[in-house]
Amino acid sequence: MVDVILGLQWGDEGKGKIVDYFAPQYDIIARFQGGPNAGHTLYVDNKKVVLHQIPSGIFHQNAINIIGNGVVLDPVTLKRECETVAAFGIDVKKNLFISQRTNLIVPTHRALDKASEQQKGEGKIGSTLKGIGPSYMDKTGRNALRVGDIVSKSFTTQYIKLRLKHQRLLDNFHFMDDIGEWEEEFFEAVDFLRTLNIVNGEYFINEEINKGKKVLAEGAQGSMLDIDFGTFPFVTSSNTISAGVCTGLGVAPQKINEVLGVTKAYCTRVGSGPFPTELEDSTGDDLRKLGSEFGATTGRPRRCGWIDLVALKYTVMLNGVTKVIMTKADVLDSFKELNVCVGYSIGGERTDKVPFQLMQANMKPEYKMFDGWNTDTTALKDSNDLPAEMQQYINYINQYIQAPVSYVSNGPQREQIIKI
Ligand code: GDP
Ligand code: IMO
Ligand code: MG
């Protein structure tokens, strides 16, 4: 069977830490979508590691880690990351596998990302500029190069053909940056990629499932960044919701068991786009400071605000979430009052549904206020010791979103998590 861990907000919910925590219960950890736009933070031997391409189960020697066909892979980032994990004694040649059908990010994808964002000006998406949009465009446009292609004798010819196509687009954008150095790095990294385990991912994973092995699918980004259901066009270019597991790994829907949705106890977003509960005041600054809310991939300050239960109920529905994991609850430890968004008022009309366009000048979030717990919760281990105010906060959320908060994460370290 396959269980899934994915983000229910706009990304950075703490998925990396949660996957690392649950990984020992699984035989296989698999990334099914996204690419190096992801930044998943975990702590190993008290050292902080940020993973972009490699699944967050890599530090558990007995687990197999797979990069699925739904991912877009930048060999340069992958090579760098393999060096990082090797420094911890991890042998990627033993427990990292990559699907042949995984699409490659080439240097011109990064250039096209940059050129496209520059052209959008004020309306830019706030992309991580890792080439995600252009590489998924080449997938659906049926132009892409895939990992399986790198073993072909004609790979360089195929690359040059694609590069020429991209060059015409870049010329249209009047993009002049020299990417010669990126290309040199790219070909070195492709040589390295050839030395890794490249497999037929869909057969590999199904054969393991049939042997009774347990698979954990690791999502990147968050459901509100989903290409279909997120705050379009301010989204990423893949299906980040649980449905993406089937297409991104080649597993059938009836193989999916638990869907563990991760949400912060508040909310953040990095990049442009609507964010109804954003706090552009000192409370927002406090959340950013106390939660160290700076992008793990780009270092950009994250926009911060209260938890949005309208959006959360929506993403619980889209994903079929069976359990919710609430992270960064400790960040709220010192707040006197907490707000949760329970509805939107649009032009005076109230709704508890996410509308087609979330960005509307006449939209206001409606809040319910809770007392803060004003207690340091970072050392707590038992759910019976959670402050009464936190329990009230959680109970209300459970009831509103119709899914149970089953774990509370109370710090960035692996062991800082409480089962409820
Ligand atoms: P991801 O992309 O979903 O894996 O999340 P990121 O790694 O981008 O961002 C989450 C940040 O919060 C990282 O710096 C984590 O170390 C940190 N973090 C995760 N869980 C907790 C928690 O429960 N409390 C606190 N204070 N920090 C956490
Ligand atoms: P993890 O997996 C937070 C955001 C970008 C931008 C939009 C599109 O760490 O949660 P893209 O580079 O995909 O074209 O950017 O999506 N974004 C993320 N925000 N966490 C992420 O990943 C993100 N990946 C992309 O900031 O607004
Ligand atoms: Mg992140």
What this model shows, in words?
This protein is of the alpha/beta class and 420 residues long. 31% of the residues lie in helices and 22% in strands. The chain is built from 12 helices and 20 strands. It has helices spanning 15-22, 75-86, 92-95, 107-120, 132-140, 155-172, 180-193, 201-210, 243-249, 282-290, 309-319, 388-401, and strands at 2-7, 28-31, 40-44, 47-51, 64-67, 72-73, 96-99, 103-104, 197-199, 215-218, 256-264, 267-269, 303-305, 307-308, 323-327, 337-346, 349-351, 363-371, 405-409, 417-419. The strands form 5 sheets. Strands 9-7-5-2-10-1-11-15-19-20 form a 10-stranded mixed β-sheet, with helices on both faces. Strands 14, 16, 17 and 18 form a 4-stranded mixed β-sheet that branches. A two-stranded antiparallel ribbon has the order 3-4. A hairpin with a 2-residue loop joins strand 3 (40-44) and strand 4 (47-51). The two termini are 24 Å apart. The structure holds guanosine-5'-diphosphate, 6-O-phosphoryl inosine monophosphate and magnesium ion. The site of guanosine-5'-diphosphate has 21 residues, from helix 1 and strand 3.
